[in-house]
Design a protein that fits this description.
With about 200 residues, the chain is of the alpha+beta class. Helix content is about 40%, strand content about 25%. Strands 4-3-2-1-5-8 form a 6-stranded antiparallel sheet. It has a two-stranded parallel sheet with strand order 6-7. Helix 3 links the parallel strand 6 and strand 7. The longest helix is centred in the C-terminal third of the chain and has 29 residues.
Length: about 200
């Protein structure tokens, strides 16, 4: 039984690195992050530690409304997973958090993808490799490639993902989502009761 929802945030930041990846994949939105709440306050990936320095890469907690990401083109997807899968992913995240200074961005591994050369580097990841590594033990999320060959497009094409937003990331409708998540079930319940009452009156 599935009891948790996690989120995948795909963005195009317009950086030189992003443009280079776009040329290879011929796909849009070539940065991927993982989020753990519907307002996307807790989002992680591998990217720029210092937004002004393209070479300061590593494990990062991202601010989707910060200067670097808010104007990005984006698509946000949701995925339902089991409680056990959720706890496993959270455990992996806690390991990354504890050892954040030991991790670096896997620029070499990224270049190796179009060359189809498998390079395994300790404590080095690019964004989609990081997300694929977190998700590799999730039954509803299967990828046909080793994690160091996975691109954001490969993740986005997973049939279990549900698109919930597309547009400028800074416009992500957190308040609207909160209302949809919390209020709609109540409305549907009230609607069903009122419908039953009407049926009873008609009879």
């Amino acid at each position: 039984m599935r009891g948790r929802t996690i989120y995948f945030i795909f963005t195009d930041t317009g950086t030189y690195l992003s443009r280079m990846i776009n040329l290879y994949t011929n796909k849009p939105l070539n940065h991927v992050s993982i989020g753990f709440d519907h307002e996307l306050k807790e989002v992680y990936s591998f990217g720029r530690i210092n937004p002004k320095n393209p070479f300061s890469g590593g494990f990062v907690r991202e601010d989707i409304r910060g200067d670097f990401l808010r104007d990005s083109k984006s698509a946000v997807y949701a995925l339902n997973i089991t409680e056990q899968e959720y706890e496993s992913i959270r455990h992996h995240i806690s390991v990354f958090q504890t050892n954040a200074s030991d991790y670096k961005y896997n620029f070499i591994g990224l270049v190796a993808i179009p060359l189809k050369v498998e390079i395994n580097r300790k404590n080095a990841y690019f964004c989609s490799q990081f997300v694929a590594t977190l998700m590799k033990d999730t039954k509803s999320f299967k990828l046909s490639k080793p994690t160091n060959f996975v691109t954001p497009a490969d993740i986005r094409e997973n049939s279990e993902l549900q698109l919930i937003f597309q547009g400028r990331l800074g416009d992500y409708p957190k308040h609207k989502l909160r209302e949809e998540t919390l209020e709609l079930p109540k409305q549907s319940f009230i609607y069903s009761i009122s419908r039953k009452l009407k049926e009873f009156v008609v009879r």
